[in-house]
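Renewal narrative, Specific Aim 1. Our central claim is that a sequence can be written position by position from structural information alone. The example that follows is taken directly from our test logs and has not been curated for this report. It begins with the structure tokens describing the chain, in the order in which they were read.
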């Protein structure tokens, strides 16, 4: 019996394997990963200091423990070089494996800025636990960290670092933090709270280069010719779905690997979920949608070819941003035709995005206003019902 092969051992890969094993304990399963295969909860990385955890503390189970729990084979430090759809095979550097069904769960890759300078190779990008180990190894007590990007990850790291004795500067070409997710009033509330905590903001200015500055320090130059002196530079400008290997195999890709609500790709024996997948036109690289997909796909893979595949549903799944000095809950509207209606009291912002008929299509809550989350979740429409 050819196995089900899952490429990726992050939250998506391990979650779909767990869900599959709830329904099928016999079919062989192989998971392949480029890293050490440790199981961890990725959102914990950007608040590890707040949880008083080291990188080692974030590991929930080793690859060996996961293999035993799932009754599966976990192949670590292996790179998939190609997918042969006709032969139903994945090609590794030193091996070729045949699959019955293939699941692509390899996640997304950090966007890499095109920067000048002789120190661009020293810029940290934290997209997994291995990256985070390296980043933490370079953090000395009182280090000044320059963060490139004021999106979700940049703001969460700024919050975590500033509250634990580090100096933090954040640069972003946008005019306010979280500009891709929230209206200006909500972003300004986060900016105000983090500035009060000590974050030095450089908004409206893009980084242009990173240079060695002597004494193991770096100069981060901005487009207004100013610069930030820092001990550590962290790039957090966003993610892009990993699509290259799928595209090379002839699968349909757009913002992610294109799948329908059954999570099948343009090949009937290949599925995708998580940060690499675009589900029915939606690319939502967040935990809530991922878990919905894992539950649906686990049942589908176990049901067999003659069964009707499950269709994923996305209820109202707001994004929780862990800027604890000013927490944020946002449900971005899918349809941008409408307007924000804002009420603000200091750093507490209550924002409603309504369409032309006055119907709620999205919302944002910050600070004390987050206490109203349940009311908004009840009122807001599901993303995929």
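The sequence written for that structure reads:
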């Amino acid at each position: 019996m050819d196995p089900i092969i899952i490429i990726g051992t992050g939250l998506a890969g391990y979650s779909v394997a767990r869900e599959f094993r709830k329904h099928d304990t016999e079919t062989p399963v192989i998971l392949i990963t480029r890293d050490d295969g440790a199981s961890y909860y990725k959102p914990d990385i950007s608040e590890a200091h707040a949880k008083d955890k080291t990188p080692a503390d974030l590991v929930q189970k080793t690859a060996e423990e996961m293999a035993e729990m799932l009754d599966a084979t976990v192949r670590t430090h292996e790179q998939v070089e190609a997918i042969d759809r006709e032969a139903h095979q994945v090609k590794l550097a030193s091996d070729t494996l045949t699959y019955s069904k293939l699941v692509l769960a390899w996640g997304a890759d950090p966007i890499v800025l095109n920067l000048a300078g002789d120190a661009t190779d020293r810029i940290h990008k934290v997209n997994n636990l291995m990256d985070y180990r390296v980043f933490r190894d370079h953090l000395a007590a009182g280090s000044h960290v320059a963060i490139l990007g004021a999106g979700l990850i940049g703001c969460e790291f700024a919050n975590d670092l500033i509250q634990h004795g580090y100096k933090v500067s954040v640069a972003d070409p946008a005019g306010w933090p979280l500009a891709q997710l929230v209206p200006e009033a909500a972003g300004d509330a986060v900016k105000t709270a983090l500035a009060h905590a000590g974050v030095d903001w450089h908004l409206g200015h893009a980084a242009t280069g990173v240079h060695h500055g002597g004494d193991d320090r770096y100069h981060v130059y901005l487009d207004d010719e100013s610069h930030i002196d820092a001990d550590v530079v962290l790039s957090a400008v966003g993610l892009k779905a990993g699509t290259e290997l799928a595209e090379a195999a002839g699968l349909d890709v757009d913002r992610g690997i294109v799948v329908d609500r059954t999570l099948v790709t343009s090949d009937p024996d290949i599925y995708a979920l998580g940060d690499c997948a675009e589900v029915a036109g939606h690319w939502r690289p967040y935990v809530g949608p991922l878990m919905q997909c894992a539950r649906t796909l686990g049942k589908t893979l176990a049901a067999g070819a003659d069964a009707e595949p499950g269709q994923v549903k996305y209820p109202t799944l707001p994004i929780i941003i862990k800027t604890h000095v000013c927490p944020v809950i946002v449900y971005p509207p899918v349809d941008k035709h409408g307007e924000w209606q804002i009420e603000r009291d200091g750093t507490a912002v209550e924002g409603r995005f309504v369409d032309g008929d006055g119907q709620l299509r999205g919302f944002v809550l910050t600070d004390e206003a987050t206490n109203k989350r349940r009311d908004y979740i009840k009122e807001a429409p599901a993303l995929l019902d």
